[in-house]
Amino acid sequence: METHNQGGGADSDHLPLVLLNDRALVLRDETALAERIHAATPLRGLVRMGERQGFFHRNAVLRLDHLTLSSSVHAPLLLEAEETGWAMVALAYAGSARVTILHQRFDLLPQQGLLYLPGSAFEAQTGFLQEVLIHLDPGRLALTAAAIAGAARGPKAFLRRLRQPRLVLPGNALENDLLTTLRRTLTTLDAPDLEAAGGFAALGIEDLLLRLLALLLFPELLGAQHSGTGSPHPAPQPREQAFTDLLEWMKAHLHTPITLTQMELRSAYSRRSLQILFQERFGCSPMQWLKAQRLEAARQALLHPEADDTVASIARRHGFADLSGFAMGFRRRYGVLPSGVLRLGRPPH
Question: What is the pLDDT of residues 167-181, one digit of tens each?
Answer without folding.
Answer: 998 878 888 899 999
